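Handover notes (outgoing to incoming on-call)

Open items:
1. EF-hand domain-containing protein: sequence verified, structure written out, both below. Nothing else pending on this one.
2. Nothing else urgent.
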Amino acid sequence: MADPEQYRATFEMVDVDGDGQISPAELRNLMRALGQDISETRAIEVVVQADGDRDGRISLPEFAALMETYTA
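EF-hand domain-containing protein C-alpha cells:
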C-alpha cells in the first residue's frame, strides 16, 4: 500500500481550491499543465477509477494509490 505522505506535496499542488480533494476539473488542469489535454469525460473516468469511497473526488490516500499504479 502506498504511503500517502510521500505524495502530499504533489497532491496539494493539484488540489487548487485546498478542499482536500481532487475534482475532475483539477485533474484536467494538472494534465493540461503536463502537456496532456484530456477531455472532461476522460478526467471523470480517471476520478471514478481512483475514487474508492465514491464521493466523486480523489482524496490523498486515493491519489497515492493511483500514483502507485502508474509508477509500479
